Amino acid sequence: MIPYLHIGPLQIPTFGLMVALALITAAYVLQADFERRGLNADAFTMITVAGLAGILGAKLYHLLESPAEFFANPLPLFFTRFGFAWFGGFLGGFGAMLLMGWRARLRPWEFLDACSPAASIGYAIGRIGCFLSGDGDYGKPTSLPWGMSFPNGVVPTTERVHPTPLYEFVVWCLIGWLLWRLGAKALKKPRAMGEIFSLYLILTGVARFLVEIIRINPPLIWGMSNAQVASVFSVAVGAMLLWRAQQAQAS
User: What pTM, to 2 d.p., does this model score?
Assistant: First the structure.
């Protein structure tokens, strides 16, 4: 793996590089969705603010998973390059996007529908950063032919393990493509606002829950990891919102 790129005296983390690429790509996808929907908003400013908030949220959520360790030595842990939680990033970025959408005076459900494909594609590209850096997001040992070892990773392993970041890259790209296509169909035949966002919560929640089965994360409750608990919550909220959207369209 390639945790760092060395260009002269510069040492560039590949994870950070891919996160930057993920944000730029997500901004282009979101801007394209705004334009096809006729929405007047600046996706690049929104994604920049949401990206920074997401990184902060991911870091804080990870640190507060072990509060005793964090409060015993907060500054070094906070400023380390490692330790980011997906759900914390989602909460931070989501909260910032809601605020930015409100400031732009966009209809909330239409705005969230437009954000969903961009969020999926951005997450997919960000996972390539996890893969390149070998930051420990890989899965359990496997004898499957596509199993990989990460001897030079940030969190090294010489065992052949599931390359789960690659699984997520493929699945989230497919989810992003599907949500984009549903958005295109909604422009021709109107759908209930909020339906695409609801499907985003359901599909990504199911996908993350299944990936966690072959990950090495410890259980939190009822045999489920922290990410699986968050995934169950995501699916439940998505299902409730989908029912609400369909009921509103039928009435």
Answer: 0.88
Q: Write the CB contacts of 195 (distance below 8 Å, at least 6 apart in sequence).
A: 113, 182, 186, 242, 245, 246
What DSSP element (H or E) covers 218? none
pLDDT 10s digits, 155-179: 889 999 999 999 999 999 999 999 9
Residue 221 bridge partners (DSSP): 224
Per-residue pLDDT reduced to its tens digit, 39-70: 999 999 999 998 888 888 877 776 666 665 65
Across the chain, the runs of DSSP E, i.e. the strands, are: 4-7, 10-13, 148-150, 157-161, 219-221, 224-225
Give Cβ neighbours of residue 176 (< 8 Å, ≥ 6 apart): 29, 117, 118, 119, 120, 121, 124
Who's near 193: CB < 8 A, 6+ residues apart?
Answer: 107, 109, 110, 113, 245
Say which amino acid occupies 101: G
- Neighbouring CB atoms inside 10 A of 55's CB total 18
Look at residues 204, 63, 40 and name the one whose alpha carbon lies nearest to residue 122: 204
C-beta of residue 227 within 8 angstroms of C-beta of residue 86: yes
Residue located via tokens 């998505």:
238
**Is-contact 12 4, C-beta < 8 A?**
yes
Copy the structure tokens of residue 171.
């699945």
- The answer to whether the beta carbons of residues 230 and 187 sit under 8 Å apart is no
Q: How far is CA 200 from CA 102, 129, 168, in A?
A: 20, 22, 14
